[in-house]
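Good day; I would like, with your permission, to put a structural problem before you. A protein sequence and the structure tokens that stand for its backbone fold form the material at issue. I would ask you to consider whether the tokens describe a fold that such a sequence might reasonably adopt. I set the record out below, with my sincere thanks for your time.
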Amino acid sequence: MGRERAPGSGLEAELAKHKGVEIHGNNLRISFMWRRLRCRETLGLPATKANIRHAAQLRAAILHEIKLGTFDYARHFPESKHAGNYSRTRDERISALLERYKPLKAVDITSETESRYSLALDICIDLLGKDRLGSALLPEDIQHLRVQLIEDRATSTVNHYLATLAGFLRWCESNGHCRAGLSQACTRFEMSAREPDPLTKAEVEALLDVGCLHPADRAAITIAVYTGLRPGELCALAREDVDIETGVIHVRRAITATGTFKVPKTGKPRTVLLFPPALEACRTLLAIPGKVPQHPVTVQLTRHETRVDTVTPLLSPTLQARRKRVNTWFVPTAWNTKWSTIQKRAKIRHRRPYQTRHTYACWCLTARGNLAFIAKQMGHKDFTMLVEVYAKWMDDESPNELQHIWRGLQDKA
């Protein structure tokens, strides 16, 4: 409802001096914007010059509190029918909320994960606006954020940012700092499934015979292809993890890009049975005199728990280093550089190091390996991922599957 005409020229002139103050019925009313809503509240004061000035001062104080994020609707207007609805959340800037959230979240994650989460949240909050009030955020703001993020970032990166932001917003919702359901606007983008791109036998031979100039590199790539270890697990292997007598490798740890040791991805160690080429590769590496003595490494189990392994690296940059000061252990980024150099030398199509893991899975599946066995070797919780990711290689055998099953039934008859 617009401003009603005030009786008397003196009142009209006074009202004209003060924006947001008007006469409604027989009383004064103020209006202001809060949380993107226009709020109007009648003060129960008759229209006099003194009361108009009082109303203007009240409105100015309210606007100041809104700017500071301290405005409490119910305190100013306890009798208002809107007080209950408007005061369900507390006004605080999202930058201040984020600083409170970070240490609360950090206790449940590792320091490396904390660093990634912190970066993602900082980027999102910067784009949303650090000085924005949590209570003023709308789903539309999150939708605009999605548009900004996807403009110049990979889909996988944006989805990580949105998932991390959703966790922060759920915390804000549960503590009354923003409207309920805001986190649901953090809808992740659909991603086209990346099919595995395994190496062929000929490409592996080229890598080993042409690409590798040192026996340690040849042995390392052989182990990667014939065990399906993740790059971080491969780089963290120790001589003490290899049991030549029983033909197994014990995967007890992985190493991150920053050189931090952690448990394998599923959180549990596993034992990998070695194909003959991988077993021979382990013998080769164990026969090479190591330049690094056995030493303790700290493996992060959780944020608050660690263990110490006293081990000797199976693969180490020191084996081929020309410089005096090099890292004791390979990290995935350094292994990626070496892998790229070996591929270029072998003149094969470029692939990420992780494709050696896909190669192992695809070769095992096309050889009709048992799904449960392959999944256990690779460190999956079950064989669901094998079916989802490697269905193409399993389907390649489907035309002959009926005959294969029939022969098996006949043999048991």
Observations:
- The mean pLDDT is 88.
